[in-house]
């Protein structure tokens, strides 16, 4: 009854809810630094929009997300037919695979990276091709060398989750100059608004508008503070967006999410404030970790760091006992590492006290 493609598939494993960890361990406080969420809630305008939407939640949402798609098209200077809105950027990944992959088709990605780039092709009988990172960064040259006539998709995370590193404009330009026309490149820029590097490209402006076969992903889950409402989008060719429209669910994004996303688009000043707060938090997090003998991979340009700690589960469990939830990276292809999100200042201070309490180097050495 069950498709053979699913027989060896290990599904994505979400972390336990904070409330459950708190109850199980009898802790007064638990700080979650595991999921790369922004530490701050929805913008005030978005909160007001959610409140306004509440009385109409007995109605189905706008299945085409028409107003939000039009607003995003205007924001990025593209046509309405170039924008798809789905339940998070992760949903765009899944629908892109569903629209393009037949059994045996290949999807290439760097590794370790976001598990959906591997899991979603596997669900369809596709063949995920994992190209090892070089110096903890996507090796675009090696990815090009891995392309075959069966390759349909290439996933490039920029920045990469979990390492926090990114490819430069020059590396992208060299990649797009050589990638075969039959390959759709999915550039995942879920953390786009956090990045403030001169050589970091806007893939919509610089590669899609230049005519390359690319689908660019963005999300409202990170700096916009709407992770719980699941709103992401892709910007690509009309052909690709139309194909995604054929396989996406009819009511994929709820009404409150659409309204909150619309209300968030004009909040440029708040985005700048949050980017600056994140920059400060990343410096603070880096100092805390290094003061305890840990060396985060860098340069990390989003809102999280990647730290190799030997047997990651030992330090993960020790921190959990102190009330800090971080993310072991086994499901991402790095069993020796933890990913730690840059939280609010009091959350980073809480992490510091937890690290003080667990004797980090002794914990690592004992495994």
CATH topology of the largest domain: Aspartate Aminotransferase, domain 2
N→C terminal distance: 42 Å
Global Rg: 20 Å
Q: How many distinct domains? A: 2
Instruction: Give the H and E element order.
Output: HEHHEHEHEHEHEHEEHHHEHEEEHH
Strand residue content:
5-15%
Task: Work out the helix count.
Answer: 14
Poorly predicted tracts of residues: none
Tell how many strands the DSSP assignment holds.
12
CATH class of the largest domain: Alpha Beta
| Structural shape | globular
CATH A-level architecture of the largest domain: 3-Layer(aba) Sandwich
Q: Can you describe what's shown?
A:
α4 packs parallel to α5 (116-123) and α11 (268-291) packs parallel to α13. The longest helix is centred in the C-terminal third of the chain and has 24 residues, at 268-291. β3 (106-111), α5 (116-123) and β4 form a beta-alpha-beta unit. The protein is an alpha/beta fold. The mean pLDDT is 94. It has two domains: 4-32 and 268-365, Aspartate Aminotransferase, domain 1 (Alpha-Beta Complex); 44-264, Type I PLP-dependent aspartate aminotransferase-like (Major domain) (Aspartate Aminotransferase, domain 2, 3-Layer(aba) Sandwich), CATH 3.40.640. It has helices at 18-25, 44-53, 66-76, 89-100, 116-123, 140-146, 169-178, 203-208, 238-247, 255-264, 268-291, 312-321, 345-358, 360-365, and strands spanning 31-32, 83-86, 106-111, 127-132, 151-157, 184-188, 214-219, 232-235, 304-308, 324-325, 327-328, 337-341. It is built from 14 helices and twelve strands.
């Amino acid at each position: 009854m069950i498709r053979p493609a699913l027989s060896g598939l290990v599904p994505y494993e979400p972390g336990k809810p904070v409330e459950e960890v708190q109850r199980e361990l009898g802790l007064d406080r638990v700080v979650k630094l595991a999921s790369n969420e922004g530490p701050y809630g929805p913008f005030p305008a978005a909160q007001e929009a959610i409140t306004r939407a509440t009385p109409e939640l007995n109605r189905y949402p706008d299945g085409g997300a028409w107003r939000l798609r039009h607003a995003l098209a205007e924001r990025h200077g593209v046509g309405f037919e170039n924008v798809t809105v789905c339940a998070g950027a992760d949903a765009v990944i899944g629908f892109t695979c569903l629209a393009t992959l037949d059994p045996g088709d290949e999807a290439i990605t760097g590794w370790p990276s976001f598990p959906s780039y591997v899991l979603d092709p596997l669900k369809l009988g596709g063949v995920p091709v994992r190209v090892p990172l070089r110096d903890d960064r996507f090796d675009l040259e090696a990815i090009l060398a891995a392309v075959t006539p069966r390759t349909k998709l290439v996933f490039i995370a920029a920045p990469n989750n979990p390492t926090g590193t990114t490819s430069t404009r020059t590396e992208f330009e060299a990649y797009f100059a050589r990638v075969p026309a039959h390959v759709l490149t999915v550039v995942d820029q879920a953390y786009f608004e956090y990045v403030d590097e001169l050589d970091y490209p806007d893939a919509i402006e610089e590669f899609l508008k230049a005519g390359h076969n690319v689908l660019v992903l963005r999300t409202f889950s990170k700096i916009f503070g709407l992770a719980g409402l699941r709103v992401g989008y892709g910007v690509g060719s009309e052909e690709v967006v139309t194909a995604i429209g054929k396989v996406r669910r009819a009511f994929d994004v709820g009404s409150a999410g659409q309204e909150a996303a619309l209300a968030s688009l004009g909040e440029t000043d708040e985005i700048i404030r949050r980017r600056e707060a994140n920059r400060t938090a990343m410096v603070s997090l880096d100092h805390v970790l290094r003061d305890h003998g840990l060396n985060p991979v860098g340069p990390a340009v989003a809102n999280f760091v990647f730290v190799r700690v030997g047997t990651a589960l030992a330090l993960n469990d020790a921190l959990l006992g102190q009330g800090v939830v971080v993310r072991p990276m086994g499901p991402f292809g790095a069993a020796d590492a933890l990913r730690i999100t840059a939280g609010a200042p009091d959350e980073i201070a809480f992490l510091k006290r937890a690290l003080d309490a667990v004797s980090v180097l002794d914990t690592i050495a004992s495994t």
